[in-house]
Design goal:
15 helices, alpha+beta, four-stranded antiparallel β-sheet, 54% helix
């Protein structure tokens, strides 16, 4: 009976490991990397319908494939379901916890890294903004920092609020005409990251527009080399984002910690984005506003201590199971064999949301009201165009913002 129980645990671990490999080796990822986003969507969509340990990951990838094709309404629908599923999977079943202690992390249904949960709301906010649904985008931007607040205060995580979420919220407030709320969020962005790209222009512009003379005077001293971001009465704005590269992937750590993962960068052929608007000179998207590679590594390293503690508990559980087998059979060799086999099943969980970019870049272009052909070229490391996003003719209205995103 004990031998059958041991065989069962090993079988469960092997099946779960194969299930994890099914995600890591999905042909959808190759299609996505090759920019065959429609093909990737087809692969991911089929897998996202199947309950299992990888369902959340395939759902996230499906959402990203739709997002890359600018199918924002469909992306929103999928990402909202993924958000709900990630929350459900936070309440892991007792059977999954026991399975993890006796075998390895691959037994557990993937519930998402903390940074991945945050990025679900980032992409929901960007999707809504691209659709011109600024109030819904604002809701998602607020949810980002609410989620981080809960992680920091309830989960005791060593995180901080997201400067990018605050900045995006400020731009969205501006798009809705609420300059005072925009100024508050620009100030918070500066508090979180004083080096956030062009934050001085925004603080100067909004404090001046609100008539906050003392605040404006303070910012002129802080940002002595910058001038306020200016819009004439007949101007609107293009806000363009570029998703650069590929997010890092997990590999096992070295030496005795091989059952724990770490992130390593993926070299990407894309280097930068160049945007063409009407007869304007081409503009490089040079301001990185979100570093997903850094974010993923920092968040994972923050929880390594908790992961080590969980591994130690798992090791103790395996020892108890093995000792029980040895005592019940009066065969210490069988007990040691059981411990060895169970230890072999404990491997690093290398799954992660693989369709994320490495970084997010942004440019803001004030333009007189009118219609403009807009194109975004993706440049290789050698500076040659490797892909192009033709946004067609974009209508810019006075005092309005248009959000465009390309990868």
């Amino acid at each position: 009976m004990l031998a059958w129980g041991l065989a069962r645990w090993v079988f469960v671990a092997l099946v779960s490991g194969c299930a994890s490999q099914a995600y890591l080796r999905s042909p959808g990822h190759n299609a996505f990397t090759s920019r065959n986003f429609s093909e990737a969507e087809t692969v991911f969509s089929a897998e996202a319908q199947k309950p299992g340990v990888n369902q959340l990951l395939f759902m996230l990838d499906q959402g990203m494939a739709l997002f890359a094709q600018k199918k924002y309404e469909e992306a929103v629908a999928v990402l909202l379901k993924a958000e709900d599923l990630a929350e459900i999977k936070d309440f892991t079943s007792i059977s999954e916890e026991v399975g993890t202690l006796a075998t390895g992390d691959n037994v557990r249904g993937y519930k998402g890294e903390d940074f991945e949960k945050v990025l679900i709301n980032v992409y929901l906010a960007l999707s809504f903004a691209s659709l011109g649904r600024f109030e819904s985008a604002q809701v998602e931007a607020r949810k980002i920092n609410l989620l981080l607040y809960r992680m920091i205060n309830e989960g005791k995580r060593n995180y901080q609020e997201s400067p990018f979420a605050r900045y995006l919220s400020a731009v969205l407030w501006e798009a809705s005409g609420d300059v005072n709320a925009a100024y508050i969020d620009y100030k918070k962005t500066y508090e979180l990251d004083p080096g956030f790209p062009e934050i001085g222009k925004d603080l100067l512009a909004t404090s001046k527009k609100m008539g906050f003379d003392s605040e404006y005077s303070k910012w002129t001293q802080v940002f002595s080399t910058q001038t306020p971001r200016k819009f004439s009465a007949n101007e609107g704005e293009l806000v363009i984002f570029f998703e650069q590269g590929q997010s890092p992937i997990k590999i096992p750590r070295d030496g005795q910690n091989s059952s724990l993962p770490r992130f390593i960068p993926r070299r990407s052929s894309s280097q930068m984005g160049k945007v063409y608007v009407g007869q304007m000179p081409p503009q490089i998207l040079e301001y990185r506003v979100l570093d997903i590679e850094e974010l993923s590594t920092r968040y994972l390293e923050d929880r390594i201590g908790r992961m080590v503690a969980a591994k130690m508990a798992g090791l103790a559980t395996k020892g108890l199971i093995a000792a029980g087998i040895g005592n019940a059979t009066d065969n210490s060799d069988l007990g040691w064999l059981a411990f060895y086999v169970l230890a072999l099943t404990d491997q690093a969980d290398l799954r992660s949301w693989r369709t994320l970019p490495e970084s997010l870049y942004m440019i803001r272009l004030p333009l007189p009201a009118g219609e403009y052909p807009v194109r975004l070229d993706v440049l290789s490391r050698s500076g040659l165009p490797m892909a192009s996003h033709n946004f067609g003719v974009v209508t810019v209205k006075a005092k309005k913002k248009v959000f465009l995103i390309g990868r």
